[in-house]
């Protein structure tokens, strides 16, 4: 901001005027320093009214407009400056920055402005710095006027070039010096030699010339002002005479109107036509058109409006407003138009007609009316607000935002509706932080505004603060205990935290109040689905589609009822959407039916969606559903799911690429659309009863699967996923047990035919990948919504490019509840690696100091000025000099005013080879150790058998009875400290270390498109169980093993975190007597049947 130190007076030639201007200048600086930009701009407007060519005030007003996000107004001010001073560097830079804030700016124009600014002679290194990402330089120059005592207007043109904005990095305040203390840091452009180089006589002559020029200019300006005032007074007198005559002619009609009930529009029109001596009001007014002119000043406009706002006009306007309030919009438009024809300078008439047009959906006409109202009164906050609302309806978001900002700037009555509507727009634009400020402002003005409290909660929840959001929703319920939207949103808060019972109660309370409430039906269905209760989810979604799905897939949710509140504020679930989407619900119902084996119902939903939108991604789910149905009864040992499905279909599904990219290139991509249902294959019965052997395995799996649950916020317990984990653990353990008992890697037991393997279709030895294949298979069948695929079995192109897993910690302005606890540690690692991996950006000690003090994404991005990533190191265990690429910590700017901080782990061929080699080495070492351990266990068992060979027949009978009992009951486990010998314990610790090393590299490898974390821990449990050891304690609270591995460089540091709780939890556990999972559930059909029982005890 520029400090206009020398007061300039051009209206009156007296000391009072000079003092007033100086007071305005000081006041504007004070307001700006306190970030009161609206008040500052009001003062600047007064200065500009006194001198329309005050370049300093115009520059400062442009700055205020920029701060208030009124970018188009900022550009207008810059254009005015550039008309007078085409090379004004501040105006050039400010305009360039404002243009970049617009949605569709001209990059060539911006670059041209910056180029002109850089070449502006006489401005040296002047820059502007708003402490944002659009600043062009980091340095700041404090520039003031040369002489605080020089009140000469003769040097205006030169002084204009001296006027530059001042921003301090810490406060962005107006830099001011005392008016009594001359400053020497300014830039003064002159063709004359400096005063220090002139003789005293030359200096005196120059001062006299300047004084003469100043006096002449002041006299000329005063004469022009006087002539302009005289002309305005003459025009006003003529207008007053004509207006008085017009009002007298209308008096008869107005008197009748006041003394009778409201007239219809046709009656009003007839009375208008009958007035006068055969002539119409319109004809009389045509004669006055040359006299009525648009006012040139706000003072004149106010006088004019005061005269026009008589009781007569007000009565007609009131009649028009009555039409609007009664919903008679066409009648209102006709009446307002008739009044406007005779009174074209009354802003409220355009407001009334514009509102009627808006209600009728005639948005262009509405915007034109509101724009006309603004032309007549550019301080009308109501006009800006209504025009903004119309622009929102036309999806003109950025333009609407500028209007809302202007409405706030001119608001004098704390109109909370402006803030509420701007908050809705910010929310729609995903700028939740600004939306939150607006909604909080509403609640401060009107504490009983339940919709605003509800919106405060929505903003907090979508930003990752569910407990704070909960408190806001409670405030809304204090105002209206039956506000179903807030009950629903509380349910979503609990769901985001992973609390099923509280979430279910809140959703059910909303449906108790309003049984057909769409958001509650949608979101409670998702709660059921994400908890593994697919049948309950389908019931809720059936109700949803029964009430709101008549439009089928053609409806996007516009016919959904959002409850007994108006749609502008009450609706919206915790997922950030006001109205539930019919297509989303239909798709989820299709996925749920596919999961439980009701394939034909699933395809009905998919087909309805594709009829409306052939490019919808449910095309891929439809193809996979048909493929699954075709293979429903085939033995799983005969094929591998990953190898059987087209690699491009899997890739496009992961990338959500439109299906036409696949179907239009089907020949070259080797893709063939799945044939329709084989009628001989029936869907799966939901109420299938398990046999006794299956039931035994089911109970064991339920217990083991509980160990998978993370005890962290955001992880909702999912019974279906826990069951598939338990079954997967048991199948892994049973498969490995056979290998351990063989005692030889070269035995036939170790050899696989490759039919069901993902690594190769040829015969090969059982490896670590074959072990993980077991878990991948169960995960693919249990949750078809998740694309769980091996990275090297996606398309060759994507594998080469490095498509991989992606886990956001912060996305936009949302802190992801599950993973945000990992932010601080991840952020510090990024700061540590930046100087090493980006030395050109961290080039000096000053930048290093800024890096050290950075605490958030904004700080770091401002320092780097671009999207970037760092790669975490992962040290090889087999070769201490080998450092592999871990994960990529990435930081990207997300419009508007947000960032994505995430981990991205690419599956490139080189990386794949490195990790495969490391896992191969650990796998071989693990097998060798387990063979030794198994020999000790076998010897111990042989000794036990020998010692009991002389037992009595009674004892044998008892033992047999006990053995039979054990095979049908849950095995018991004992404490590890009392179960293992010293030799066993040493070997077990070595084996445990190798299992954790395998897990460490798996987590850093992240070879699956989804699900690598859960599968890593599942495999860990399976490896221990293969040794007849169960992990009996859950994962500690707030610990996520996958993140502990990803954010650590070595196996040693990872083991140091996991060992303290894992090793004491190891207990002996025998599964030898149970049936084989691979035999009892050897088809997809049988797998789905057992998973459908996940909610049973």
Q: What report would you give on this structure?
A:
The chain is mostly helical and 1097 residues long. Helices cover 60% and strands 4% of the residues. The chain is elongated, with a radius of gyration of 39 Å.
Strand content: under 5%
Indicate the radius of gyration in whole angstroms.
39 Å
Largest sheet: 5 strands, antiparallel
What would the principal axes of the Cα set say about the shape?
elongated
- The average pLDDT is 81
Low-confidence stretches: 3-16, 121-125, 136-197, 275-297, 551-580, 952-978
Secondary structure topology:
Elements: H1 15-33, H2 37-50, H3 55-67, H4 71-84, H5 89-101, H6 107-118, H7 156-162, H8 200-259, H9 265-274, H10 281-288, H11 298-308, H12 311-325, H13 329-342, H14 347-359, H15 363-376, H16 381-393, H17 397-410, H18 416-428, H19 432-445, H20 450-462, H21 466-479, H22 484-497, H23 500-513, H24 518-530, H25 534-548, H26 582-596, H27 599-612, H28 618-630, H29 641-644, H30 647-655, H31 660-663, H32 666-669, H33 692-705, H34 719-742, E1 751-752, E2 764-765, H35 768-782, H36 796-801, E3 804-811, E4 814-815, H37 823-837, H38 845-853, H39 857-864, E5 868-875, E6 883-894, E7 898-906, H40 909-947, H41 953-967, H42 976-979, H43 982-1005, H44 1012-1025, E8 1029-1031, H45 1041-1046, H46 1051-1062, E9 1066-1068, H47 1077-1080, H48 1084-1091
Antiparallel strand pairs: 1-2, 3-4, 3-7, 5-6, 6-7, 8-9
Helix pairs in contact: 1-2, 2-3, 3-4, 3-5, 4-5, 5-6, 12-13, 12-14, 13-14, 14-15, 14-16, 15-16, 16-17, 17-18, 18-19, 19-20, 20-21, 20-22, 21-22, 22-23, 22-24, 23-24, 24-25, 25-26, 26-27, 27-28, 33-34, 34-35, 34-44, 35-44, 40-43, 43-44, 43-46
């Amino acid at each position: 901001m520029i400090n206009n130190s020398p007061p300039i007076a051009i209206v009156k030639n007296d000391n009072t005027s000079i003092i007033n201007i100086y007071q305005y200048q000081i006041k504007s600086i004070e307001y700006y320093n306190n970030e009161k930009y609206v008040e500052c701009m009001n003062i600047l407007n007064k200065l500009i009214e006194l001198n329309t060519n005050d370049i300093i005030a115009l520059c400062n007003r442009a700055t205020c407009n920029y701060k208030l996000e009124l970018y188009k107004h900022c550009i207008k001010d810059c254009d005015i400056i550039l008309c007078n001073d085409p090379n004004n560097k501040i105006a050039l830079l400010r305009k360039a920055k404002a243009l970049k804030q617009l949605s569709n700016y001209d990059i060539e124009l911006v670059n041209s402005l910056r180029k002109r600014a850089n070449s502006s002679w006489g401005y040296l290194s002047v820059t502007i710095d708003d402490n944002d990402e659009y600043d062009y330089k980091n340095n700041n120059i404090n520039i003031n006027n040369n002489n605080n005592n020089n009140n000469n207007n003769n040097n205006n043109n030169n002084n204009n070039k001296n006027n530059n904005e001042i921003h301090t990095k810490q406060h962005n305040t107006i830099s001011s010096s005392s008016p009594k203390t001359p400053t020497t840091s300014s830039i003064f452009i002159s063709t004359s030699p400096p005063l220090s180089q002139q003789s005293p006589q030359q200096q005196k002559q120059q001062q006299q010339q300047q004084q003469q020029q100043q006096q002449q200019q002041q006299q000329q300006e005063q004469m022009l002002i006087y002539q302009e005032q005289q002309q305005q007074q003459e025009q006003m007198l003529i207008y007053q005479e004509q207006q008085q005559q017009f009002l007298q002619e209308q008096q008869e009609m107005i008197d009748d109107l006041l003394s009778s009930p409201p007239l219809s529009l046709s009656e009003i029109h007839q009375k208008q036509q009958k007035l006068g001596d055969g002539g119409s009001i319109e004809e009389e007014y045509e004669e006055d058109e040359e006299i009525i002119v648009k006012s040139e000043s706000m003072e004149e406009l106010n006088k004019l409006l005061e005269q026009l706002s008589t009781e007569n006009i007000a009565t007609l306007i009131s009649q028009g407003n009555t039409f609007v309030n009664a919903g008679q919009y066409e009648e209102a438009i006709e009446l307002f138009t008739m009044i406007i024809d005779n009174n074209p300078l009354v802003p409220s008439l355009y407001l009334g007609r514009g509102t009627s047009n808006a209600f009728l959906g005639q948005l262009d006409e509405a915007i034109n009316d509101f724009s006309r109202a603004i032309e007549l009164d550019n301080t009308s906050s109501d006009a800006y607000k209504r025009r903004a609302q119309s622009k929102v309806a036309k999806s003109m978001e950025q333009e609407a935002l500028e209007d809302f900002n202007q409405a706030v700037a001119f608001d004098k009555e704390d109109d909370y509706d402006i803030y509420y509507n701007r908050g809705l727009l910010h929310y729609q634009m995903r700028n939740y932080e600004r939306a939150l400020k607006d909604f909080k402002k509403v609640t401060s003005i009107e504490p009983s505004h339940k919709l605003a409290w509800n919106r405060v909660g929505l903003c907090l929840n979508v930003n990752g603060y569910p407990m704070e959001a909960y408190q806001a929703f409670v405030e809304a319920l204090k105002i209206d205990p039956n506000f179903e939207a807030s009950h629903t949103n509380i349910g979503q808060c609990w769901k985001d935290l992973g609390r099923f019972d509280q979430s279910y109660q809140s959703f059910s309370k909303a449906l108790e109040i309003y049984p057909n409430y769409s958001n509650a039906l949608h979101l409670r269905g998702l709660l059921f689905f994400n908890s593994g209760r697919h049948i309950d989810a389908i019931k809720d979604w059936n109700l949803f589609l029964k009430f709101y799905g008549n439009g089928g897939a053609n409806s996007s949710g516009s016919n959904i009822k959002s409850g007994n509140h108006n749609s502008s504020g009450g609706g919206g679930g915790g997922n950030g959407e006001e109205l539930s989407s019919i297509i989303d619900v239909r798709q989820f119902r299709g996925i749920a039916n596919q999961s439980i084996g009701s394939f034909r119902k699933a395809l009905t939903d998919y087909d309805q969606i594709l009829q409306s939108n052939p490019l919808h991604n449910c095309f891929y789910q439809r193809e996979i559903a048909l493929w699954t149905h075709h293979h429903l009864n085939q033995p799983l040992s005969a094929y591998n799911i990953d190898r059987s499905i087209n690699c491009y279909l899997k890739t496009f599904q992961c990338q959500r690429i439109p299906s036409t990219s696949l179907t239009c290139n089907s020949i070259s991509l080797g893709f063939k659309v799945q044939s329709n249902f084989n009628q001989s294959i029936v869907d799966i019965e939901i109420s299938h009863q398990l046999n006794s052997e299956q039931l035994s395995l089911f109970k064991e799996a339920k217990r083991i699967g509980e160990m998978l649950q993370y005890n962290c916020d955001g992880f909702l317990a999912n019974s279906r996923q826990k069951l598939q984990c338990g079954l997967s653990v048991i199948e892994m353990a049973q498969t490995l047990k056979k290998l351990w008992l063989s005692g030889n890697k070269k035995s036939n037991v170790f050899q696989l035919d490759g039919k069901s393997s993902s690594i190769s279709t040829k015969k090969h030895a059982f490896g670590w990948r074959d072990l993980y294949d077991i878990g991948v298979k169960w995960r693919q069948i249990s949750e078809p919504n998740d694309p769980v695929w091996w990275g090297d079995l996606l398309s060759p192109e994507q594998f080469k490019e490095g498509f991989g897993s992606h886990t956001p910690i912060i996305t936009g302005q949302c802190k992801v509840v599950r993973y945000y606890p990992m932010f601080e540690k991840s952020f510090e690692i990024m700061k540590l690696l930046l100087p090493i991996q980006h030395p050109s950006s961290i080039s000096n000690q000053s930048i290093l100091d800024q890096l050290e003090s950075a605490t958030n994404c904004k700080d770091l991005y401002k320092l780097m000025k671009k999207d970037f990533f760092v790669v975490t190191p992962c040290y090889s265990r087999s070769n201490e000099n080998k450092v592999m690429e871990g994960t990529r910590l990435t930081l990207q700017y997300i419009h508007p005013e947000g960032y994505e901080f995430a981990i991205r782990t690419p599956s490139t061929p080189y990386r794949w080879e490195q990790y495969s080699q490391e896992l191969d080495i650990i796998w071989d070492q693990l097998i060798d150790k387990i063979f030794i351990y198994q020999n000790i266990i076998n010897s111990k068992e042989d000794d036990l058998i020998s010692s009991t060979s002389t037992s009595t027949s009674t004892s044998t009978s008892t033992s047999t009875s006990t053995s039979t009992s054990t095979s049908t009951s849950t095995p018991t486990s004992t404490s590890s400290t009392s179960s293992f010998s010293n030799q066993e314990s040493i070997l077990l610790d070595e084996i445990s270390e190798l299992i954790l090393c395998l897990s460490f590299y798996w987590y850093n490898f992240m070879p699956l498109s989804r699900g690598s974390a859960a599968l890593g821990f599942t495999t860990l449990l399976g490896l221990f169980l293969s040794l007849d050891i169960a992990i009996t304690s859950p994962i500690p609270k707030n610990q996520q093993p996958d993140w502990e591995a990803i954010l650590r460089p070595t196996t040693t540091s990872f083991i140091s975190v996991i060992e303290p709780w894992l090793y004491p939890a190891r207990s002996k556990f025998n599964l030898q007597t149970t049936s084989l999972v691979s035999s009892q559930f050897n088809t997809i059909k049988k797998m789905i049947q057992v998973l459908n029982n996940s909610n049973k005890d």
